[in-house]
Amino acid sequence: MSQDPSTPELSVTAAPHRHLILLGTGTSHGVPMIGCHCPVCESTDPHNQRTRTGVVIEAPEGNILIDTSPELRIQLLREKIDRIHATLYTHAHADHLFGLDDLRLFGHYLQRPVPLYCEEQVEQRIRTSYDYAFTDPWPNVHPGAVPVLEFHRIGVEPFSVLGQTIQPIRLWHGKLAVLGFRVNNVAFCTDVSRIPEESWPLLEGLDTLVLDALRDKPHPTHFSVDQALEVVARVRPRQTYFTHISHQLEHEATNARLPAGVELAYDGLRIEYA
Ligand SMILES: [Zn+2]
Ligand SMILES: [Zn+2]
Ligand SMILES: [Zn+2]
After folding, report:
1. End-to-end CA, the chain
2. What is the pLDDT of residues 78-117, one digit of tens each?
3. Cα(100)–Cα(67) distance, integer angstroms
4. What whole-number distance in Å separates Cα of residue 42 and Cα of residue 120?
5. What is the distance in A from the centroid of ligand 2 to the CA of 48?
6. What share of the chain in percent tops pLDDT 70?
7. What is the DSSP letter of 52?
8. Within 10 A of 187 (CB to CB), how many other CB atoms are there?
9. What are the helix (H) ranges across the chain?
């Protein structure tokens, strides 16, 4: 990078873009939900059309995907994201996992295995559900035919991916231990119904928090809107977006009753981070 004082604008134009791109903001059934004809499922407002949960961290050295939703292909095409360089997993529920086969292309494009950063339980689920990627029982295996994957075990210690330091955050999703992720001043915490005491300090000083808020009625494995607002009151991020949203929350009507600095997220929302 140039240190020439006569070209100060260079440092401005060279400032790297960092974004969190919300690929999907819907609960496990998606919105609209098959067979439902409620006003939200029949709404023509695109904010009420929510694919399954996933995020891309767009960093200067590459794109880091969080979770592989069943709509991954549609999401990446919609957001014009051509390459995924690494994938992190929050947990192994079907709505966060079963788009994994679409990672095939990236192994092919990048000519190397796609790194998957996850906990042991997630790795076991992937090895079981995608056995064809790890064994070779089929007669027609040509380049790009199966995902080529490389596991990296993570826990609650920070780790580095593509020049970004990722801080995992232990969360409880009912009785299932899952991970949220923080990168710099933004945190993504989906599929959570309880934040353990040791994780609260990791949420201090956030500019943006993306947080699970399923619906108004309490649920055994997700925060309700009121519970999520209690988290916001304790963490006090500058801005909060609720995600993993059911068809019971209409976008405009819900935003109108949320406090300042708290909004429902929507598919395609881009959040700049430092
Ligand atoms: Zn989920
Ligand atoms: Zn509905
Ligand atoms: Zn889940």
Report:
1. 19
2. 999 999 999 999 999 999 999 999 999 999 899 999 999 9
3. 8
4. 40
5. 10
6. 92
7. B
8. 24
9. 9-13, 72-78, 94-97, 104-110, 120-129, 225-235, 251-257
249 CA → ligand 2 middle, Å: 9
How do 239-243 and 208-212 pair as beta strands?
parallel
What is the per-residue pLDDT across 26-71, written as a single tens digit (0 to 9) for each? 999 999 999 999 999 999 999 999 999 999 999 999 999 999 999 9
Residue 246 backbone dihedrals phi, psi, to 5 degrees: -85, 180
247 CA distance to ligand 2 centroid (A)? 5
Distance CA 5, CA 16 (A): 20
CB 215, CB 224: distance < 8 Å: yes
Q: How far apart are CA 243 and CA 190, in angstroms?
A: 7
Which two three-digit tokens encode residue 207? Answer: 């500019």
Residues 6+ apart with CB under 8 A from 105: 144
- Indicate if the pLDDT at residue 6 is higher than 90: no
* Ligand 1 centroid – CA 91 distance (Å): 9
> Comparing C-alpha atoms, which of 137, 53, 145 is closest to residue 103?
145
| Distance between Cα 13 and ligand 1 center (Å) | 38
What is the amino acid identity at position 142?
H
Burial of 196 (0-12, 13-18, 19+ CB in 10 A): exposed
Among all bound ligands, the one having the nearest atom to the CA of 96 is 1
Would strands 176-183 and 186-189 be described as parallel, antiparallel, or unpaired? antiparallel
Q: What is the CA radius of gyration of the chain?
A: 19
Question: Minimum-distance ligand to the CA of 175?
Answer: 3
Q: Which long-range contacts (CB under 8 A, 24 or more apart) does 258-263 make?
A: 258/225, 258/229, 259/229, 259/232, 261/232, 261/237, 262/229, 262/232, 263/239
